[in-house]
Amino acid sequence: MEQVLIDLCDALDELSEKVLASSKEERSLKLVHGWHHPSMTKSDLARIPETLSLEIRRLDASDVSVELSESISEIPSRLQELYNDTVPYMFNGHGNQAIPAYLSTMQWVRQVVDPLFSWENLQDNKILPPSLSRRLRNIQRDLDQLIVDKSVLLN
Predict the structure, then answer these.
(1) Average pLDDT of every residue of the chain
(2) pTM (predicted TM-score)
(3) Nearest to 45 by CA among 113, 105, 115, 120
């Protein structure tokens, strides 16, 4: 995996850890702070960057375009801004303002890395939906039958 993706995954994992460490409360924010907070726990919020990190690591992408690599390289510093400026406020009663900023940032990160998950970049057929995987195997089998053995033609 390219270093830019490793750095991104490390930053996402660190963000997840910061969110988990920011509160001892396990109940949903709505129950603790009221109707203007989401019905999510700190674990739910921490799972967002954690899941994205796991998805990226599973891809094992080794050929990221220069443009995408440049865009991805900006993300870790942006996530670090959340550590001090946003995450602490998610659990002290100001979550109705901090959580939308957190979620918007995570949505932006997902949008930037989305090209990594395009069908063209998938190297592993196990990641594909089962029906598509079966269809690809059938097409490959048909192609194998169509390809002529050169040695038979030369004889």
Answers:
(1) 86
(2) 0.76
(3) 105
